[in-house]
Amino acid sequence: MKQSKECMEIGFIRARMLDDLADTSDEEIRNEYREAGQDMTVVAKQTHDALRDVVAASMRARLASAKAATKVSSASQPTNWVRPTMDRLKAIVSEAFVREPKVAMAFRDGKKQTDEDLATVYDDLVRMGVIKPEHHGD
């Protein structure tokens, strides 16, 4: 898509402003705020609050997007798969955790997972697409 002339000009101005800011020392920035009669503590808090709000909004948007993608993904996944035997299920879940290091599971109070817990984990991993049930139907 072609950028409009106005967007390109704004991008150029934005880049020059960032260059100017990067070339300005901290002391020069403090002096500019003092000369303008502004309290640096107040400005720092306002900046912190504004950045926190932007980050929080971004995180909420990413979460909403991920939830929407999960709903679409789980809606397209069949929910009537047949679970393998418990021994095979344990091996499949273990292999999934080794193969996908970003996938993890926490134990409550350091207790061992029950067979029912592992079956639920298996179902969740299938829904997430980490495990494909058709690859190991027992």
Overview of the molecule:
The protein has helices at 5-23, 26-35, 40-76, 86-99, 115-128. The protein has 138 residues and is mainly α. It has 2 domains: 5-74; 77-135, no CATH class. Helix 4 (86-99) crosses helix 5 (115-128). The longest helix has 37 residues, at 40-76.
Number of helices: 5
Q: What average pLDDT do the residues reach?
A: 85
Share of residues in strands:
under 5%
Radius of gyration: 26 Å
- The percent range for helix content is 55-70%
Low-confidence stretches: none
* Distance from first to last alpha carbon: 50 Å
Query: How would you classify the helix and strand content by structural class?
Result: mainly alpha
- Tally of DSSP β-strands: 0
In the residues, how many domains can be counted?
2
Assign an overall shape.
elongated
Largest sheet: none
Query: From N to C, what is the helix and strand string?
Result: HHHHH
